[in-house]
Amino acid sequence: MSNIANVFNPKQESKPIEDCLSCDIFNSIFLLGTGGYLSSGKAILKDKKVSVKEFNKKNPIWWRNGVRSFGAFLIGYGIFRSFDTYESWKTSQEKKLSN
Amino acid sequence: MSADHSRDPCPIVILNDFGGAFAMGAIGGVIWHGIKGFRNSPIGERRLGFLNAIKARAPVLGGNFGVWGGLFSTFDCSVKAIRKREDPWNAIIGGFFTGGALAIRGGWKHTRNSAITCACLLGVIEGVGLMFQRYAAWQAKPMAPPLPEAIAPPTQAQPLQA
Amino acid sequence: MASMLSDNGSETFDRVTNHNNNEIDTSKLTNIASILTTPGFDSSRLHPLAGLEKGVEYMDLEDEQLSTMEGSQGLIPSRGWSDDLCYGTGAVYLIGLGIGGFSGFLQGVKAIPPNASGKLQLNTILNSVTKRGPFMGNSAGILALGYNIINSSINAFRGKHDIMGSVVAGGLTGALFKSSKGPKQMAYASGIVASVAGLWSGMKDKVLE
């Protein structure tokens, strides 16, 4: 097939990216770190300048819990990803050895 | 055949983006605050006002830009690693989280608005980028040899000329 | 390209010589339009070596090449001055942030009021770290930014990169950084930054050897 049509209308489809070990490692660490930060409750702290009432209005309970549970979810996902990353690291090591 | 040298692999590209954003902010800050400091000081002390404004404000502006760029790049990288895809949505999702993360101290409404604004902004930027890409591809299209007029059923068969 | 030749070199030869056996009958072709509309026309048949079946590849000879300037090869492959600038600034900012954070930590520990509660202790240290770290980071980032801009300008002007250029760039950056503090401070800053730049360049050359 001629590709001339593709030249006139370049497709902007989403391209899959090949496996990238450094990206996976980084991503696992990032997920665990962000998850830890969010679930620790340090992300939403009361400033001395705002009153308790105002703080509660700005940060409703569901929002605080939501941020915390999002953090917990990130930690869980980060653990899952870490295992994945470990697997792909192992296969890459085996590939290196067999070469 | 052509390896993609245009982006570096993930964790290290954050350093690049961070530095780039810092440089942009700092240089912009020198220009912006330099002019402001120059104009806002009395006539005799304009040079001093110019220098002081730059020294006090430009590094901070650079730092703020840098934090934004670095955070955005970090989120972008993570979204890429999770989705395993390369398309404009990465930047939009990354922008959403960046905006949210930077505003999280200001309460939930502030966080929501900031996240949405940031995502829209990134969407617009990505859209403009795509348009430019299309335009560049259209401009750089290989020129086909001009077709003879008889692209419809040729009335008179002419011998092919070498 | 070379691998393609070795893989199907014989096939290529066949296709070029025996084109009468192909579905395209050249005797019936009259003009380009009839070639393009011939049933069974395949762009890859025009010339196998052209690699037309792989699609069009745009070559950005200008943009995507690694820097080839003499002596400019760094620890990270660099595509030119903008890469040096971004990576240099980012890395130096992070180093400054780390050093500033550490010194802020030490200061905070020293500044803890006597018999303070645990929370107050933590707060004092955190405040000191978050104040000192970004300040040092910003200053270091500005220094690296200035150094990289001047260094790249010098390199571009001279057409090569060596330790001398780095040292001169460092000296200029230091002087510029302290330009509002008088000549003595300027000289100090200039000397410090120049020696750091020289040390760094020398170390880089040693590592790359």
UniProtKB/TrEMBL annotation, chain A:
Highest taxon in the source lineage: Eukaryota
InterPro entries, alphabetized: Mitochondrial_unc_protein (IPR053092)
Protein name: YDL157C-like protein
Species for this entry: Maudiozyma exigua (Yeast)
Automatic annotation (TrEMBL), chain B:
Cellular component terms (Gene Ontology): TIM23 mitochondrial import inner membrane translocase complex
Topology within the bilayer: Multi-pass membrane protein
Listed GO biological process terms: protein import into mitochondrial matrix
Domain of life: Eukaryota
Record GO terms (molecular function): protein transmembrane transporter activity
Function statement: Essential component of the TIM23 complex, a complex that mediates the translocation of transit peptide-containing proteins across the mitochondrial inner membrane.
Designated name of the protein: Mitochondrial import inner membrane translocase subunit TIM17
Localisation per UniProt entry: Mitochondrion inner membrane
Gene it is expressed from: TIMM17A
InterPro entries referenced in this protein's UniProt entry, alphabetically: Tim17
Transmembrane annotation, as ranges: 12-32, 89-108, 114-132
Keywords: Membrane, Mitochondrion, Mitochondrion inner membrane, Protein transport, Translocation, Transmembrane, Transmembrane helix, Transport
Organism: Maudiozyma exigua (Yeast)
From TrEMBL, chain C:
Role, per record: Essential component of the TIM23 complex, a complex that mediates the translocation of transit peptide-containing proteins across the mitochondrial inner membrane.
Originating gene: TIM23
Name of the protein in question: Mitochondrial import inner membrane translocase subunit TIM23
Keyword Protein transport tagged: yes
Family: Belongs to the Tim17/Tim22/Tim23 family.
Keywords linked to the UniProt accession: Membrane, Mitochondrion, Mitochondrion inner membrane, Protein transport, Translocation, Transmembrane, Transmembrane helix, Transport
Membrane-topology annotation of the record: Multi-pass membrane protein
GO MF annotation terms: protein transmembrane transporter activity
Subunit note: Component of the TIM23 complex, at least composed of TIM23, TIM17, TIM50 and TIM21.
Subcellular location, record wording: Mitochondrion inner membrane
Main location as per UniProt: mitochondrion
GO biological process: protein import into mitochondrial matrix
Pfam families: Tim17
GO cellular component terms attached to this protein's record: TIM23 mitochondrial import inner membrane translocase complex
Organism name: Maudiozyma exigua (Yeast)
